[in-house]
Amino acid sequence: MGVSRVRETVTVQESWVYHCGHCQHVWREDFEVHHTDDGHGGDAASYYRGGERSIAPTADRVCGNCGCYSINARPSPRLRREPLMPPPVKPYDLELIFRMRRLHAY
Ligand SMILES: [Zn+2]
């Protein structure tokens, strides 16, 4: 009964910035997010930091500076939540690489 689906895990790097509304302390946390298909069309995400299982980036944080809980979390704009795509190689860059290789050979 039902169609069995292959569980796929997609690993994404996420970077979140936290800002304490009390003392203005700002810090950043990097996460490795494992998105796993739960087999029902849903998405189950597991968060890891430095190889250790971590709580979700949106979970409550305590300010490391003043110990309060008024923390604003937002994804860092530099790293988007989509899987990272390699930058396209421009013909100019390839030409440059070849030229450098030739120079190195001499
Ligand atoms: Zn604080």
Provide a short characterization of the protein structure.
It contains one helix and five strands, in the order βββββα. With 106 residues, it is mainly β.
Word description of this protein:
There is one protein chain. This protein is mainly β. The protein has a domain at 9-82. It contains 1 helix and 5 strands. The chain has one helix at residues 91-105, and strands at 9-20, 26-37, 43-49, 52-54, 71-75. The protein has a 5-stranded antiparallel beta sheet, with no helix packed on it. The longest helix has 15 residues, at 91-105. It is flat and about 60 Å long. The protein starts with 8 loop residues before the first strand and ends with a helix. The model has no long low-confidence stretch (mean pLDDT 83). Zinc ion is lined by residues 20, 22-23, 25, 63, 65-66, 68. Residues 20, 22-23, 25, 63, 65-66, 68 line the site of zinc ion.
The largest sheet has its strands arranged as 4-3-2-1-5
Which consecutive residue ranges, at least 5 long each, have pLDDT under 50?
none
Mean pLDDT: 83
Helix content: 10-25%
Strand content: 35-45%
What coarse outline follows from CA principal-axis ratios? flat
Ends: how far apart?
A: 67 Å
**Can you write the helix and strand succession as a string?**
EEEEEH
Query: Main sheet, how many strands, which sense, barrel?
Result: 5 strands, antiparallel
The value of Rg in angstroms is 21 Å
